[in-house]
Amino acid sequence: MSEKRRVFITVKTYPTISKKYDELVCTAGILDDGSWVRIYPLPFRKLEYENRYKKFQWLELPISKNTSDSRPESYKIDDIDQVKALDIIEAKKGGWAERKRIILEKNELFTDLTALIERAKYNELSLAIFKPAKITDFIVEEVAREWSQDKLDTLHKKAQQLSLFQTEEEVKQEFSVVRKLPYKFSYRFEDAKGRKSKMMIEDWELGMLYWNCLEQCDGDEERAIEKVRQKYFDFFLTRDIYLFLGTTKQFHGWASNPFIIIGVFYPPVDNQQILL
Questions:
Q1: Please, what's the b/e burial string for 196-227 (b: 16 or more CB within 10 A of its CB; e: otherwise)?
Q2: Which of 52, 50, 80, 46 is CA-nearest to residue 171?
Q3: pLDDT, tens digit, for every residue of 52-90?
């Protein structure tokens, strides 16, 4: 049954192309009752401009359980035209503290990765807040630079179908394909019990940072990657860092580790708390 809910957006993954759903952004956040929710599929660029939400923004939207996804937090939007963007919690003027309160107040904080994976195995959860004991490295690996042709062909066919009802410019704008990242980024870290892991990061913020750095560096990929590393490793390690983890539908419930990093939360260190 569909109901309108308020969601505090904490996760926007870098867009992917789906044969079935076009270009998609996996979105997750905290519901108005404090619990986690995953909203998928969500064709982000089909939203009206004023409703193209940002991280740390409240949204109002009609959702119902996604019956094609057994993960407990998975919901779908029932009417994209009813999505309404609300307040953004800015970082300044105490915003980090408010973000932290919304995210952590009613959610369990995990420090033991093995215990977390066990919970996912029994389908008790598929989204979690994880606090690593130590982040030891930031890994960059080159991957394919273009989307697969079959997925691009599917988008092209859908664009041709819509062209009967839209102008050529509208079709081009709707079906312009987001650039594929030529690298994948991962953290190496240890949990509270010393378990060492390498986990991929699929955060919109990281993808856009790479493209912005590449532009600043006049197309020099090595310099751009170094700038990304400076933020995600050098700078973030000076902050109070948390990882938002989510399982992939394909590997949920059976893989040795079904989780990927879908967001990085990095409020400033609370010095008063340390003194206590």
A1: eeebebbbbbbbebbeebbeeeeeeeeebbeb
A2: 46
A3: 778 999 999 999 999 988 999 999 988 888 889 899 999
Instruction: Enumerate the domain spans of the chain.
Output: 3-88, 108-143+180-275, 149-178
> DSSP assignment, residue 123?
T
Q: Using alpha carbons, select from 173, 207, 156 the residue that is nearest to residue 22.
A: 156
pTM for the whole structure: 0.86
- Dihedral angle computed from the Cα positions of residues 80, 203, 214 and 53, in that order, rounded to the nearest 10 degrees: 30
Distance CA 188, CA 95 (A): 29
Q: What digits encode the pLDDT tens for the residues 155-208?
A: 566 555 544 444 545 544 554 567 889 999 999 999 999 999 999 999 889 999
- Alpha carbon distance 10, 28 (integer Å): 6
Domain 108-143+180-275 belongs to what topology? OB fold (Dihydrolipoamide Acetyltransferase, E2P) (2.40.50)
Question: Taking the CB of residue 260, how many other CB atoms lie within 10 A of it?
Answer: 19
Helix axes 204-216, 221-229, angle to 10 degrees: 130
Q: How far apart are CA 115 and CA 227, in angstroms?
A: 34
Separation of alpha carbons 211 and 225, rounded Å:
10
Pick the CATH number of 3-88 from 2.60.40.2470, 3.30.200.20, 2.40.50.730, 2.40.50.140: 2.40.50.730
